[in-house]
Amino acid sequence: MANYAVATVIVLSIILIGLLLIRPSITAAQGGKVVAFMAFFILPIVATVLGASIHLENSKSTQFCLSCHVMEAHGKSLYIDDPTYVPAAHFQNNRIPKERACFTCHTDYTMFGDVHGKIRGLQHIYVYYLKPPPAKLALYEPFKNRECLRCHANARSYEETTPHKEMKGQLTANEISCLTCHNKIHDVANIDKTKRWEGPGT
User: Which of 120, 100, 175, 185 has its CA nearest to residue 144?
Assistant: First the structure.
């Protein structure tokens, strides 16, 4: 629906610009000036804002993240048939939305988390097209417990489990990383040696 709206605005702008090019005398009247202003300024701005919004929303999708070939192994890791692998267990058991798996865990959940995530995404595009990708992909900064606790805090399975109860303050303060214990992450280096889960959608 949103794509249809953008296309409609673009087509309308093109029609009006075409009309003005064929009959420039229209702009002599006040109404013609308004039409020209709409065609050359307002409608293109509306189309740009709508288009950018749609593309930003699409860039949150797992499909978008994995469309880059350097992320292919990370996508495969979501299907590792081993419940001790954190991303695979979360993805396969619907603990995160499958259509936004990457974005859910790899966005800093602050007021401007989405904005920071998008800026870093633009850096990825720059590297992808203008520089060779690094030999080993790494996060910009260490993974914070906040990304885990956003969902797990107050969950019975977390709150009543040892050693979570004993370490709750340290985990909340990020003094001890969740990844200290839950350390089987993507393991892309060994992805071809792991068994694959052949579930729905694979």
Answer: 175
